[in-house]
């Protein structure tokens, strides 16, 4: 018999519903007033919760824009660990591009709204950079684990991780600037190809 997936209990469902309500209220206020102009007190008042309850669900106001930060990073780390035995790290990265790029393609409207808010606030831009650094560190650690323990291997892992994250940032920015009309998976795969084989000296040679 197929194994049944355990369903969340009543307490977990209530927590999820309360968290979703806070997110919905916060995002409505952000779009009405702007992120910086919206206070935590306003969010709690309209969501009918105390600040103490708010901090059970979210680290701070910025976390409302990146509510799944920890889960997404954990998923990325798990993905890297599962593909540690793949000979060419770029093959693993292509699989990651298809997976995460597919998520962005399917939810492009939500990500466009999120990006608009990020662009309006220096605090959110700083938080986004922190998240990028977390992903870059995770990638560097995974690359170093497959390369060995020498200083040269560590440098290789750090430089490659930095280059890959630069490619990711540039590609996603390009996608947003085009109003998400292109297929992000295809853009990401093309960008990884450029990096793996070395950049041509002229764009016409791509």
What is the succession of H and E elements?
Answer: HHHHHHHHH
Task: Give the full name of the CATH homologous superfamily of the largest domain.
Answer: Tetracycline Repressor, domain 2
List the uncertain runs: none
- What is the overall number of helices? 9
Concise structural overview:
The chain is mainly α.
Task: Describe this entry's structure for a reader.
- This protein is mostly helical and 206 residues long.
- It has 2 domains: 10-64, Arc Repressor Mutant, subunit A (Orthogonal Bundle); 69-205, Orthogonal Bundle (Tetracycline Repressor, domain 2).
- It is 73% helix and 0% strand.
- The chain has 9 helices and no strands.
- The chain has helices at residues 10-33, 40-47, 51-57, 69-82, 89-106, 108-119, 122-147, 151-177, 184-197.
- Helix 1 (10-33) packs across helix 2 and helix 8 (151-177) runs antiparallel to helix 9.
- The mean pLDDT is 90.
What key phrases describe this protein's structure?
206 residues; mainly alpha; Arc Repressor Mutant, subunit A; Tetracycline Repressor, domain 2; 2 domains; 9 helices; 73% helix; 0% strand
């Amino acid at each position: 018999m197929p194994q049944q997936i355990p369903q969340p209990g009543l307490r977990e469902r209530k927590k999820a519903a309360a968290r979703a309500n806070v997110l919905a209220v916060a995002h409505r206020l952000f779009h009405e007033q702007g992120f910086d102009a919206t206070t935590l007190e306003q969010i709690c008042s309209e969501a009918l919760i105390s600040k103490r309850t708010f901090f059970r669900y979210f680290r701070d106001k910025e976390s409302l824009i990146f509510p799944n930060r920890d889960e997404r990073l954990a998923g990325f780390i798990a993905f890297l660990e599962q593909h540690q035995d793949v000979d060419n790290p770029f093959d693993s990265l292509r699989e990651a591009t298809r997976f995460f790029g597919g998520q962005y393609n399917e939810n492009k409207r939500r990500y466009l709204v999120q990006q608009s808010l990020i662009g309006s606030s220096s605090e959110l831009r700083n938080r986004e950079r922190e998240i990028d650094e977390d992903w870059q560190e995770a990638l560097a650690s995974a690359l170093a684990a497959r390369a060995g323990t020498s200083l040269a291997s560590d440098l290789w892992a750090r430089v490659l991780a930095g280059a890959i994250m630069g490619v990711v940032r540039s590609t996603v920015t390009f996608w947003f600037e085009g109003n998400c009309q292109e297929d992000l998976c295809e853009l990401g795969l093309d960008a990884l190809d450029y990096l793996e084989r070395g950049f041509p000296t002229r764009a016409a040679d791509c």
